[in-house]
Amino acid sequence: MTAPKGTPFFLVSGAGNDFIALLDREAPPAETVRAWCRRGVSVGADGLFSLRRRADGRYVLDYANADGARAALCLNAARCAARLAFDQEPSISRVEIETAAGTLTAETVNDTSTAVLVPKPGPGHPLTLRANGENYPCYRTLVGVPHLVLWWPGDLDEAPVASLGPALRAHPDLGASGANVHFVDIDREGGFGIRSFERGVEAETLACGTGVVAAAGCAVAEGRLSLPLVAATRSGCELRLEEGPPEPAGAARWRLSGDARIVASGRIHDPATLLPSAP
Length: 279
Description:
Layout: E1 7-14, E2 17-23, H1 30-37, E3 47-53, E4 59-65, H2 75-88, E5 94-99, E6 102-110, E7 113-119, E8 125-131, E9 134-143, E10 145-151, H3 161-169, E11 180-188, E12 191-198, E13 203-205, H4 209-222, E14 229-232, E15 238-244, E16 253-268
Parallel strand pairs: 2-3, 4-5, 10-11, 12-14
Antiparallel strand pairs: 1-2, 1-16, 3-4, 5-6, 6-7, 7-16, 8-9, 9-10, 11-12, 12-13, 14-15, 15-16
C-alpha cells in the first residue's frame, strides 16, 4: 500500500483566531510557516503551532505567527492545543502545557470551549504615542508578548484599526519588537469590546486572547472594570475572564475561557509551499 503523501495537520480556531496545528512533530522552518499560512494560495491561518506530548504526560507548545516568527505565547493557540489534547485523550479534562512563556494549566469546559489559567497581569505602563498626526494615550503591558491598549471613546466598528494599528504596532517608542495593538470599548455592561491589530499577521485578527487579558489587566487596575467580565471579539465569540485558583506558590491567576474547536484535518501537500505563478 502506498503511504499517504503530505504533512498531516489540523485546522483549529480559537474564538476566530485560526491556526495550522501539527501533532507530535516539530514545527517547520519559518519560510514554510509563511507559505502554509498564506490565505487563498495555501492552507491559510493566523499562525501555526506544534503540540508534542512528553513522557510525563505534559504537552509542549511551539507557536509561530503567520510571518514565521516564533512568539512566546498565544492564548487562543494554547486553548486550541488543549482541545487537541482532550481529543487525543478523551479520558482527561485537565492538561499542563509548556510554552516559551511558562507552563499553563488548561481545562475543558464543554465540546467547543476550553479554559486556560494565566498569571494575573500587571496594570500596564501609561504613555502617549503620536501617530498619524494625533496623540494617543495608551498603556503598554506584557502578557507573554508586548501589547498596547487604547480606550476607544467612539464607535468601535469605526475605529481606524487598518490605518492606526500599523502606525502604533511599529512605533519607534516601543522598540524593535513593537506590540500588538488593541482598541477597547470599556463602556459596555459586564465587560468590553475589543479589536486587535496583531504582530506577525500584520493585520486585524478576529480575536487575541493575550490581548483580552492585557486589556482586562489595565481596566481592572484602573478600577474601571472588575472580574468576572466578558470580552466581545470581532468574530462574535466571547472570551470570559474570572478569578482562577492561585498557583501552588500562592501567586494569583486568572481563568480565560471561550470557543476553541477543531475545524478540519488533512494533509498539506508540496504545492502549498510554492509561490503563485507569474501571469
